[in-house]
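Hello forum,

I keep getting stuck at the same step: I have a sequence, I want structure tokens, and every attempt I make locally crashes halfway through. Rather than fight my setup again tonight, could one of you with a working pipeline run this one for me? It's a single chain of 283 residues.
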Amino acid sequence: MRQETVSIDGNCADADAAATVSPRSNLGLAVQLLELIAGRKEPVGIVELATATGTPKARLQRVLNGLVDTGLVRQDAAEQTYAVGNRSVHLAALIRNNVPLPRIVAPILEALAAETGETATFNAYHPQEGAATIVSAVESRQSLRYDLEPGEAVPMLAGACGKAILAFLPAAELATILDRRGLASIHSAIDLDRLRDDLAAIRTDGFAVSGERLPGAIEFAAPVFDAPDRVVGSLGVTAPRERLAEPFNHGYAVRRQAARLSELLGCGEQHPIALSKHDESSR
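Reply #2:
Ran it on my machine without issues. Output:
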């Protein structure tokens, strides 16, 4: 017997895709419910789902029953809650394996490059090597620009793109990277105390700003997550210093677009970086 209950205050799922299916149809409602349930770390109940969707509980129950019957949603009758089912997990794995990361990243990079007018990159983190590389790049259309190519290594200890990743790594993993690299950057020896101060500031701000990687350039970057506690890379913008005026609002643009990308990669509602009014005002 299927029971009732639920609560949604927010999630990192991408609403744009679901908007193409009318929530007034049962299919649209099913998609909306899957997004809400998948965006939660804990099982949720029907009362809160009804509140979040504005749907009468009788209709909501019928759609949930269908999701449970197909295995997309799992019900705990004793707790009167719903969670993601094994079939949804399987579908997510198929999609992840068959949709190349650059294809997911492309529209975010295009939007970031168009908004800032500067070269934008997605930099993937490789945990086993403790390193990062540029996976995708969209060049600025301005005559004075920085051309950054996919496949290029990203310095982890110098520059915003690497530091945005370092700032959100577990302490033990960060220590391993520092030991492995001997605290040497591409230009000079790293001051460990200064580095730790930089990483603490990045965790507070949600983005990094640096002028140390490329001569005459300012680099902005924000971390990208596929789970609340797992950073998988960074989104960055590189611009000539002479074209920028303080305050450097590109940092807010990068932070906002990195949050969007995190949503697309499956980050749940416990996203570790809170956006602010500055993220919207930077448009």
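The chain is about 40% helix and 20% strand. If your local run keeps crashing, start a new thread with the error log.
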